[in-house]
Hints:
Layout: H1 5-48, H2 53-97, H3 106-118, E1 151-157, E2 164-175, E3 180-185, H4 188-191, E4 195-199, E5 203-205, E6 232-235, E7 241-249, E8 258-262, E9 275-277, E10 282-283
Antiparallel strand pairs: 1-2, 1-5, 2-3, 2-7, 3-4, 6-7, 6-10, 7-8, 8-9
Helix pairs in contact: 1-2
Amino acid sequence: xxxxxxxxxxxxxxxxxxxxxxxxxxxxxxxxxxxxxxxxxxxxxxxxxxxxxxxxxxxxxxxxxxxxxxxxxxxxxxxxxxxxxxxxxxxxxxxxxxxxxxxxxxxxxxxxxxxxxxxxxxxxxxxxxxxxxxxxxxxxxxxxxxxxxxxxxxxxxxxxxxxxxxxxxxxxxxxxxxxxxxxxxxxxxxxxxxxxxxxxxxxxxxxxxxxxxxxxxxxxxxxxxxxxxxxxxxxxxxxxxxxxxxxxxxxxxxxxxxxxxxxxxxxxxxxxxxxxxxxxxxxxxxxxxxxx
Length: 292
């Protein structure tokens, strides 16, 4: 009996969903209840027994341990979710390599890109743990190589033109001998640009995690001004191209987007009104060609 690849993928996803429900669902609820009870015990003891320091210390230790157990369960759940995302992405890449091209309308692609940015994993570090490379505004390490299927900004030649432009693309392969990428324009069917072979300097990996402004504000691009600013490149809304701009307002919460002022000569000030761009599509690179 021959089992299709799609069936195998579905089975793997179901296995992890079942594990997620059985291992984390009821246990997480139980741990949360234990943590709440532990905190309530501390509050009651503090208000009723001022001189029982040893007992209070014991309650604190118990509450801390319960909170750590709850944290471990939540991190396990997030890991299962990440595995499910990876399984589905690997299947999509296999289908693409087998010649099964996706026929998706531009509007649908735009919604998918937005959803992908909104569901990008959020970095939740432990005490004193700093955000890693490719979290928010933190760039990749110099020797980093983006994986097959990863989203990147790619500097490609403009069709029927002399200039170049940064576009949103997906990594198809990387040649360690030539140090060159093969990337696919994310809207290849609509833009008819197809596949590009580029050097590493022409490819910038996009963030793999979102930064939380409330805990890791240093992992985000700071607000700038027209007179003095740190330039960024951001994906212009409803397009697949990156353009130069400045941060008018960084995200205030982990669900917020950047407010970007795009460099645009069609406006008297030289910049567009504030436009919203997700963390995943704001990076630090130079732009050679301007938006027209």
